[in-house]
Amino acid sequence: MATPLRNPIVDIDRSIGDATTATGSRSGRAVHVTTAHSTTLTEPVTLGAGIPTSARQPHRSGMDLHLRQLSKRYTGVAALDGVDLDVAAGELVALLGPSGSGKTTLLRVIAGLLHPDSGQVLFGKDDATRLSLRERNVGFVFQHYALFKHMTVAENIAFGLRSRPRRRRPDKATIARRVEELLGLIQLPGFGDRYPEQLSGGQKQRVALARALAIDPTVLLLDEPFGALDAKVRVELRRWLRQLHERTGQTTLFVTHDQEEALELADRIVVLREGRIEQVGTPDEIYSDPASAYVFDFIGRANVLEGEVRAGRFHLSGHAGTFSADDVADGPARLFARPHDVAAGRDGEGITARVVAAHRLADRITLELNVHGQSRPAELDFAATPGLTTPAPGSELSLVPLRYRVYSA
């Protein structure tokens, strides 16, 4: 099980405890993990909207989804390259990655909006690879709502049901009841007669979600569902979506660029890179136990120090401190540490850095630092307690990573 996150803020004068180490290997690359335990560390931090990851067990009413060796190319570029993924019924899974990593392509292949060059899409045991969007009965929510402006809210929600072939179309009374149920579910009772232009952005996205749920979809797919909303509404709506998912248990995949969104909402996160899956895991696993240097650097904030491993120790040229790197082969390597997993130590025991600037963010102060011989700046977080004196720009600090990983370069 992944080591839980420690205190996200460290005091600049915190004590440094004894280090314990663990080693492992990911994707054929040597990796070394070190955690320093200090008596000042607090309880583990829970990721999510007030719901521990381990407690996220919604009612399983959705359908299993299985992707087998999916590939898709555009003019010689691999948008998807042999993607394998299993999603359990009722899971809420985030597809996370930079632009061009294949997130939206994968979602559209699952929906039936694109056909893969090779591979399979299975809903349960049924091969849906060559079925259309309608035949798959997938619910799809777009970033920009895609509501029909000339239809009322109720008519928008009912659209999918009314568009069914006559033999499968519910009667008017059944559709009306379903619409009323969904208006209550999305917390917009009495809004059925309004038009989209009379709604806020958050309300429009709720209506779009209700329209997707109206057809009782096999799988619910969300493409950057909160991307068009302002920051405060995004936070409110994603927490509401998590609660809605707990109630419905719908198998759901959503694309996002927002790491906080993925860490807060998802049961599991799929990190994509250049059309391939780099890692699949719970939010805690992705953040605390990254499978590669890429995932460590991509998720959250990371200090990255270039050096080399010699005889099981990581060395930085020009710095006195060395760090355990057992089972990492001798040669060029990189040390990764979160800003909240670094503390200020005694002179000569760590990594010498010069303060460039101090940035205040709510109850946290982040020091921006230059480390001699390193191309990337470093950061150190500490709590903004009353009366604390912030190190002045130009002053020097000795940095000691409390928890870090070393990867072969």
From the structure above, extract its key features.
alpha+beta; 9 helices; six-stranded mixed β-sheet; 409 residues; 33% strand; seven-stranded antiparallel β-sheet; 22 strands; single chain
Topology:
Elements: E1 19-26, E2 29-36, E3 65-74, E4 77-87, E5 92-96, H1 103-111, E6 118-123, E7 126-127, H2 133-136, E8 139-141, H3 153-162, H4 172-185, H5 201-214, E9 220-223, H6 231-248, E10 252-256, H7 259-265, E11 268-273, E12 276-281, H8 283-288, H9 293-298, E13 303-310, E14 313-315, E15 322-324, E16 331-337, E17 342-345, E18 351-361, E19 364-371, E20 378-383, E21 396-401, E22 403-408
Parallel strand pairs: 5-10, 5-11, 8-9, 9-10
Antiparallel strand pairs: 1-2, 2-22, 3-4, 3-6, 6-7, 11-12, 13-14, 13-16, 14-15, 16-22, 17-21, 18-19, 18-21, 19-20
Helix pairs in contact: 3-4, 3-5, 4-5
What does this structure look like?
There is one protein chain. The two termini are 26 Å apart. The chain has 409 residues and is an alpha+beta fold. The chain has helices spanning 103-111, 133-136, 153-162, 172-185, 201-214, 231-248, 259-265, 283-288, 293-298, and strands at residues 19-26, 29-36, 65-74, 77-87, 92-96, 118-123, 126-127, 139-141, 220-223, 252-256, 268-273, 276-281, 303-310, 313-315, 322-324, 331-337, 342-345, 351-361, 364-371, 378-383, 396-401, 403-408. Mean pLDDT is 83; it is low at 1-32 and 34-60. 41% of the residues are buried. It is built from nine helices and 22 strands.
